[in-house]
Amino acid sequence: MKPDWRKPVDSGLLLMAILAIAFAARLGVSFYLGETLNFQDSREYHALASQLAESRSYQAEGKPTAYWPPGYPFFLALVYSLFGSSITAARIVQSAIGSLSCFLVYLIGLRILGRRPALLAAAICALYPLLVYSSAALLPSSIKTCLIACVVLFSLRAWKSGSGSRAVLAGVFAAGAVLVAPSILPTVLIIALWVAWHDVSRPGLGKLVPVLLMLLPIVLCVGAWTLRNYNVLGRPVLVSTNGGFNLWLGNHPDVTAETGNRMTPRMQRELGTVYARHKNEAERDSVLYDMGTRYISEDPMRFLKLWAAKAVNLWRLAPRPMTEVELAGGKERLLSLFSYGLLLPFAAFWLIRSIKNRSEARLILLMFIAFTATHAVFITKVRFRIPIDPYVIVCAAGGLVALFDFVRARISRRSPH
Hints:
mainly alpha; two-stranded antiparallel sheet; 18 helices; 2 strands; globular
């Protein structure tokens, strides 16, 4: 008996196939990368996590530290505690988390767009080059992507149901995201305010309840880590002590929008002086914050122009290589152009078409704005954008399905009955 290809495919089976493909793709990259670490940041995270797993102390060079946000090293330390200090094991666990993110994108798309666009969004995420690579790389991008997706999903559920418990869950995942990357905090606050603004179940000041419920886990978790930093460093550092460095690095008179973390000889001398005079990393952080703030206040127009250029740079079509080794023939640029580059117009189409009548479209736009505005104050790289690329994909899926339905309807009207 021949199969009937006109019969709709079971969406559950299709979703399972998409998730299996997502995991297989990430697993393949994980085994390809193996135990090699191509990023200096990856080597730092690995060293911190190994130390944490072995001695249960968060130290660098034998001293307590808060330079790197603790969320990702603690995650790696958990993996190393279970499987030994195996980089490949960490990559495999992250591959599973990356596949989970595809499922979360499906659930978000289901709430915003419906089943067909949600499945399409999950399928695109499954093979989206930046998401596949970042899930295997020993960097916090895949963890941030998953945590932010959880925040968005439970925030949407809290909004729809008025559930306080779901608002708390959104806050728990938000707390984890902030401990992985403090720069996410403004985006989280925007999501919480959006939920409160659209909550019709609570009148007046009652609308603040979801905000407070989402903020409570963040305050508790970040507060606990701040107390730890005060005890070991002598100063109440919120999450990490690299914020001052990044502010200084991103606004120094020698930098441009695309400088990233490269330093001129003058910058190296300045930084060397700060390190020589201030041995305590919390003090260095404060000094570098002051220096970065001074650069901004001395030339506000330059700061605004640089900020705008960095904002655009975050959304550039062709990224620089994600490792020190560029793919032959610039293939990473082609991969970006034929994935992100092709999706971006459809995402813009859906946002423009939906922004007036769809509150979810306004939420996504606000997330894009908050995420971009925050990072543009410091430094921007395409890989910093990875955690919000899934929402570009969700919008693009909505645009693609809407365009397909429009074309199919036009063809049906023209065809003879």
